[in-house]
Amino acid sequence: MKNNKKIGNSANNRKASSLNKGQYYMYGKHGVLAALKNENRTVRSVYCLEKQARELKNELHGTHVEIVQNNFITEKIGKDQAHQGIIALVSSIFKNNIEELTFTPGKDRIVILDQLSDPQNIGAIIRSAAAFGINKLILPSDNAPEESASIAKAACGCLELMQIAKVTNIKNSIDKLKKMGFWIAGLDGQGKENMNDVMEIEKLAIIIGSEGKGMRRLTSETCDFLVKIPISEQVESLNASNAASIIFYLLR
Asked: Structure pTM?
């Protein structure tokens, strides 16, 4: 099975006292099983409680799994994580620039997150994007978390369906996208356009800022459209991941 080629010596990994840069322990059934299916993901070791190993024997067939006690897992990821009896030591699949992303001719969508720092929000947005057929996302390197177990858990396996680039300069990346034929639409509570104005655009990048601060000024100035989701006047704003889900559904 192809997974065996990507799983290293688990005994050596177990003895390691620290992780290399870009490595982390992913936890939870959906995330780990999805990671094992991802040809672009290096899974270095898999650890599982005996009960879960029996329950997942079909899904884990052909994968070397080390049976461990619960305290081994909690030592790796902490006591309060819902690990479902399985963890894996993995290497990050985040890319370093948009040139590493694969773009498609014709209709194409990409998401840009600006000033979002909460891993749960980012993971939820990744899950929603994948659910509605969007598979590319850009994060800034200076104000967003590295790939982590929290992001993977919130994405519920959908992290493996995404191409994600963490870039040093959002504006430069947007300029590159424009040269590739993309139009840029920023989600803004004060925006003048609505989704009907951008839904039929063939190549579209959607920028989502944080719930409180929104997009940075320089990012906002690069937008071709500032799009507003009409909501009740009694509600100030939507959570970023909720707003993203609405946008992605409309763009499906």
From this structure: 0.90
| Residues 6 or more apart in contact with residue 102 via CB below 8 angstroms | 163
Domains 2-91 and 98-250 share a fold: no
Taking the chain (252 residues) in consecutive chunks of 10 residues, what is each chunk's mean pLDDT?
Answer: 43 56 95 97 97 96 95 95 96 96 95 95 97 97 94 97 97 97 94 90 95 88 94 88 95 90
What's the rounded Cα separation, in Å, for the pair 238 and 130? 20
Which CATH number is associated with domain 98-250?
Answer: 3.40.1280.10
Determine how β-strand 183-187 pairs with β-strand 203-209.
parallel
CATH architecture of 2-91: 2-Layer Sandwich (3.30)
Are the C-beta atoms of residues 124 and 241 closer than 8 Å to each other?
Answer: yes
CA distance 138 to 153: 19
Give the domain ranges of the chain. Answer: 2-91, 98-250
Helix (H) or strand (E) holding 73: helix 70-77
pLDDT of amino acid 5: 35
SS3 category, 32? helix
Structure tokens at 127: 């899950």
